[in-house]
Amino acid sequence: MSDSYKTIIGLEVHVQLATNSKLFCRCSTQFGAEPNTQTCPVCIGMPGSLPVMNRTAYQLALKTAVAINCEIPAFTKWDRKQYFYPDLPKGYQISQFDLPMSANGYLEISDEKEGRFEPKRIGITRAHLEDDAGKSIHDEVHGKADSQIDLNRTGTPLLEIVSEPDLRSSAEARAYLEELKLLLEYIGVSDCNMQEGSLRCDANVNLHLETENGKVATPIVEIKNMNSFRAVERAIDYEAERQYRVWQETGQRIGEAPKQTRGWDDASGKTLPQRSKEESSDYRYFPDPDLVPVLSTPEQVAEVRAALGELPASCRSRLSADHGLSPYDANVLVNQGRALLDYFFTTAKTCNDFKTTCNWVTQHVLRILKEQETTIEEFAVSALQLAELITATADGQLPKSRSKDAFEMMCAEKIDVATAIDRLGIEQVDESALVALCQELLATNPKIVADVQAGKQQAVGSLIGQAKKKNPNVDPGRFRELCLELVAKM
Amino acid sequence: MSLTEQSATELLQLLNQGEISSVELTQSYLDQIEAKDSQIGAFLRIDAKAALARAADIDTRRQSGKPLGKLAGLPVAVKDVLCDTETKTTCASRMLENFRPPYDSTVVAKLKAADAVLIGRTNMDEFAMGGSTENSAFQITRNPWDLERAPGGSSGGAAACVAGGMAPLSIGTDTGGSIRQPAGLCGVVGLKPTYGRVSRYGLVAFASSLDQVGPLANTTEDAALLLETIAGHDPLDSTSLDVPVPEYTATINRPLEGLRIGVVREHFATGLDPEVESAVRDAIKVYESLGATVKEISLPHSKYAVATYYVIAPSEASSNLARYDGVHFGHRHSQLSVPDPTSNSLVEMYRCSRSEGFGPEVKRRIMLGAYALSAGYYDAYYLKALKVRRLIRQDFDTAFEQVDLIASPVTAEPAFKIGQLADDPLSMYLVDLYTVSANLAGLPGVSLPCGFSSSGLPIGLQLQAKPLAEETLLRGAHMYQKATDWQSRKLDQLK
Amino acid sequence: MAITRADVEKVARLARLRLSEDELTSLTNELSQIVTYVDQLAEVDTDAVEPMTHAIELHNVFADDVVRPSLPREQALANAPSHNDQAYLVPPVLGD
C-alpha cells in the first residue's frame, strides 16, 4: 500500500559532545563509572550552586553547527525548560528555546546502494546546546520497588540537531543518520557511540495521503527508544504501516488527536504508546538568569569554518574528480571514517597510485580489519609500508602473484616489505634464467608445443605449474609471454 | 564603653594591637546573645564552642606572628542562606531543615580565609521571601528598638543582631530590599552591592537576577570593611563581574568634592510618613551644608518597579525552587498513602513534599511565578516585566548623568507591628517601593540611620549610585555619618 | 485580571503543590489582587524595548574544560531523603 501514502519523517538527534568535563560543572563525563560518583553540587542541583558554561562544549557545538551548514546568529542565550522528573535534579533542563545558537542548515545524503532514492539535501531546522538528564533505573519486573537515580550523566553536554520533515523513507532516515554520524566523527566532536548513548535519535513520523477529498495528513507520532540505526529503520517502517491502518480505521487527521509519543520495542518489533509526562506541554521556558548570552561575530564563525578541514562530501568528489576513483569506491573509502581515509591518502600519495591503493585498501585492508575485528589505527601494516608494497610490486621487485602473500605475512607478523620478501624467499628471476627455463620445459613437453602451434594458447598454462615448482619466484605472466614467443619462433 | 558597643573597625584595631583577644571578644558577643536573643530571636543557631575554638586558634596564630586574614578574630553573623560546610543551611524553611551543604559558598569561604569568627546563623524570611522575617518557619525575630515590631526582612535576623549588639558585622542578602529595609527599620547600615560585585555561588537562590550578598554593620566604615572582604570576581558565578575591587576603607574618609545629590520627585508622593519625609529632607539638608548640590530628578518608570519586581522575582523563584522535590535533598513527604492506581505516586510524593516543606509566602510566590511563566501569560507578564525593567534601568542611566547619588527614604514608614501586614500580601509587597528598583537595575544602594520617629523608631536614608560606584556610595554615606551621630545612638535597653 | 479557582488548581499541578481547600480559596483572592496590581504594566509602551534578563549584562563567560574531583558518593547522597548508598531512591516511576 506504500504507493498510496507518503511517509513524512523528521529526526531529532542528540549528540554527546566529546568534552572531558560536563557542560556546566567540571565533573568528568567518562562513561561507565559507578553510580553517583561523578557528581558535584552543580550537577546535583544543590541549593546555591551555579552553572558556568564549558568553553570546549560551546566550541564543539559551534563547529558542528558550521559543518551542517547552519547560520550562526550574533546572539544566543540559554533557557530553562521546566518539568519535574527524578533524573532532572534542578527541576529544569538548561536548553535553548527561541534563540538557538544555530539554525537553517542542511545535510546532503546520497544513496549508497543506488536506486532507492535520489541524492538530496535534508534541511536542518536548528542545532542547540543543552545539558543531559541523569538515568532512572526502574524495577522492570514488578514496577513496585523504588526507582534508582544515577546522576553521573546529568549535565553532560548534548547538541540537539533537529531536521526538517524532509525525509521520505526509512532508508533516507538511515542514510541521514549515517551521513551525520560520519560527519560528526570526521570533525571529531563526538564518538557517536550509540551503546553508550553518545548518539540518540527520536523520529517524528506521519503520513500524507491522497484521497478523493484532497491531501490529508495523519497525526504526528514521536518515536523514542531506538537504540540502533537498524531500529530507526524498522520503527519508521512499522509506524508508517500502523498509521495507515489506524487512518483507515478512524480517519483521524492531524490536529484531531494530540501529538503522541510511542516507544520502539525492538523485541516485538512494534511501537507502543508511552505514558506522557504529566503537564509536559507547558515547559514554562524562560532565559536562565544564572547564565549569560554568547555573542559571536562573522569573523569568529569564518575562523571555525576555515579550521574544519575537509568534510566527507568534498572528500568523495575530490576522490572521483581528481584521482579517478569510481563514485562507489570513493563512497566506500570516505564512509570508513577519517582515520581510514588518512591512511588511504598517505599510502596513495607515497606510492603515487590512487587506483591501486584504492584496490588494496578496499579489497585487502578492509577485509583483514574485519577478520581481525580491529581498527585502522591498530592495523599491523602502516600506510607507508603498504605504499612500499605497492611500489615494490610496480617495480617488479615483488612479483604481482606474490604480493598478496607478502601482504598477508606483513599483517600476520608485523614486518616490513623487505623482510616479507626475504622470508618468502622471493628473488627476482633474471630474464636469461627465465628464457632457459622456458626452453627446457618446451623441449620436454612437445605435446604442448604442438597444441600451442595448433592455436591452443591456453595449453601453456600447464607449464606454469611446473615452472613454479622449479623456481617459486617465477612471474607466471612473464613466463607465459616468453613461452608463446619461443613457440612462435620455432 | 563595653566591647560590644564599639565599631568593628575599632575592635579590629584593638585585636591587631593585642589589646584584646578574639576569644575575649567572641565571648562578649556570646554573652550578649545569651542575654538578649531569647527576646529578639535574631539567631537560628549558635555554635559557641566552635566559635570560641576558632577565636582561640586565631589568637594563637596572632601570638606566634603568623599572617592573619583581614578580619582576623572579628565575629561575623551569617544569614542562614549561604552554604557553609560546618553548619546546616536551612533558609528558615522546613524544606531545608536538615540540609547540610557539602560545600562552602564563596562568601563564607572568603570570610573563613579572612579569619572571621563565624558566630552564628541569622533568621530570615523563608527563602528570603518577605519583608518582616515573620515568614521564617522556625521563629519570629523582633526589632530590638521595639519588641512588638518587626525588624523588617528578609535579612531581619542579620539587622537585628547588629542593632541588638550581638554581632559587630553581619552578612545579609538583598533581592528587593532585604538588606536595606531591615537595616533601615533597625537603625543600622546595610549595603546592597552592584549586581555581580559579590559572588552568588553558594547563596541559595531566590531570584537569581536580583539576589546580591552584602554587609550589615553599625557604621559605613564597618560596612566598607566587610564589603571589601567578600567582594570580587568568582569564576564559579557566570554573573560575577570581573573588575578589581577598590579598597573601600582606604578612601572612605575622603569627602566627595562637588557631590551632586539627586532627589526623586516621585519618591515624595502620598503614602510617605511625615516623620520619615522630614528625616530624609533633613539628611539632604545636611548634604547641602557639606557643600553638595541637590538636584530634583525624575524616574518616570519607578512607579512600575514593584509590579515589575513581583513578576520577575516570583518567576525566577518558581523555577529556582523546583529543585525542592524531595528526591536529592530536602524534605520528603513520609506517609505515602497507598498509591491510587489512577495517580502517579511520584507526582503525589512531589506535591505533598513541596506543600509540607514550603510555607504560605513561598507557595504564594511559586504560584505567582508559575502563573506568569505559563503558556498564554508569558508575554503579558514575564516578557513585559523584562521590558519595563530596561526602562527602569534607562531612567537611572539618565539620572546618573546628572547626579552622583540618589537620596531617598528606605521605607515609607518606620517599623511596623508584628502581624500588621501578615494577612495582606499586596501591602507587604508595597513596602519594597523604594528598594526594588536598585535590584531591577543592578545598582548599589545603602541604607543608613538618619533619625528617629517620635516613638523612638529608627528612620533610614537610602543612597543609590550607578553600577560599581560603591566607593562613591560609601564615601558619600560616610560624609553624612561624620556630620551626624545617629549611628551612635544605642539602645539603652530592650523594650 | 481575575484569576479563577480553576486557574489556581492548574498552576498548583504545574508547580507540584498540593493545596488545601482553604489555601485554594485564599490564593485565588490573593493572586487575583496581585495580578490586578501587576496589570498596570500593560499601560507602559514597550514596543521598541528589548527585554532585560540580567541586572548587569555580560556575555561569553566560559570555564575551561578541565576535570575537577567530584564529590565522594557518601557526600553526594548524604542529604537525600532516601538512598541505598549507591543511588537516590524514589517511588516507582510508572511508564517513563
Q: Tell me the Rg of chain B in angstroms.
A: 22 Å
Pick out the low-confidence regions of chain B.
none
Tally of DSSP helical segments of chain B: 16
Q: What is the helix tally of chain C?
A: 3
Using the 3D structure, state the CATH architecture of the domain at 3-259 and 445-452 and 466-488 in chain B. Alpha-Beta Complex
What's the shape of chain C? flat
> What would CATH call the homologous superfamily of the domain at 3-259 and 445-452 and 466-488 in chain B?
Amidase signature (AS) domain
CATH class of the domain at 5-43 in chain C: Mainly Alpha
Topology record:
The complex is a heterotrimer of chains A (490), B (495) and C (96).
Chain A: E1 5-16, H1 41-44, E2 53-54, H2 55-67, E3 75-76, E4 79-82, E5 92-95, E6 102-109, E7 120-131, E8 135-137, E9 147-150, E10 157-163, H3 170-186, E11 199-211, E12 214-217, E13 221-226, H4 229-250, E14 260-265, E15 270-273, E16 286-287, E17 294-295, H5 298-306, H6 312-323, H7 327-335, H8 338-351, H9 354-372, H10 383-395, H11 400-413, H12 417-423, H13 431-444, H14 446-453, H15 461-470, H16 476-489
Chain B: H1 8-16, H2 22-40, E1 43-46, H3 48-63, E2 75-79, H4 106-113, E3 117-122, H5 156-163, E4 169-174, H6 180-186, E5 189-192, E6 212-217, H7 220-230, H8 248-251, E7 260-264, H9 274-289, E8 293-297, H10 305-320, H11 345-357, H12 360-373, H13 379-402, E9 405-409, H14 425-430, H15 436-441, E10 445-452, E11 458-464, H16 470-483
Parallel strand pairs in B: 2-3, 2-4, 7-8, 7-9
Antiparallel strand pairs in B: 1-3, 4-6, 5-6, 5-10, 9-11, 10-11
Helix pairs in contact in B: 2-3, 5-6, 7-16, 10-12, 10-13
Chain C: H1 5-14, H2 21-38, E1 62-63, H3 73-77, E2 88-90
Helix pairs in contact in C: 1-2
Please describe the structure with a list of short key phrases separated by commas or semicolons.
heterotrimer; B: 495 residues; alpha/beta; Amidase signature (AS) enzymes; eleven-stranded mixed sheet; globular; C: 96 residues; mainly alpha; 3 helices
Describe this structure as you would to a colleague.
The complex is a heterotrimer of chains A (490), B (495) and C (96). Chain A has three domains: 2-299, no CATH class; 309-423, no CATH class; 431-489, Arc Repressor Mutant, subunit A (Orthogonal Bundle), CATH 1.10.10. Chain A has 16 helices and 17 strands. Chain A has helices at 41-44, 55-67, 170-186, 229-250, 298-306, 312-323, 327-335, 338-351, 354-372, 383-395, 400-413, 417-423, 431-444, 446-453, 461-470, 476-489, and strands at residues 5-16, 53-54, 75-76, 79-82, 92-95, 102-109, 120-131, 135-137, 147-150, 157-163, 199-211, 214-217, 221-226, 260-265, 270-273, 286-287, 294-295. In chain A, a hairpin with a 4-residue loop joins strand 14 (260-265) and strand 15. The longest helix of chain A is centred in the middle third of the chain and has 22 residues, at 229-250. The model of chain A has no long low-confidence stretch (mean pLDDT 91). Chain B has a domain at 3-259 and 445-452 and 466-488: Amidase signature (AS) enzymes (Alpha-Beta Complex). Helix content of chain B is 39%, strand content 12%. Chain B contains 16 helices and eleven strands. The radius of gyration of chain B is 22 Å and the shape is globular. With 96 residues, chain C is mainly alpha-helical. Chain C has a domain at 5-43: Histone, subunit A. Chain C is 34% helix and 5% strand. Chain C has three helices and two strands. Chain C is flat and about 55 Å long. The mean pLDDT of chain C is 94. Chains in contact: A-B, A-C, B-C. The interface between B and C is large, with 74 and 51 residues.
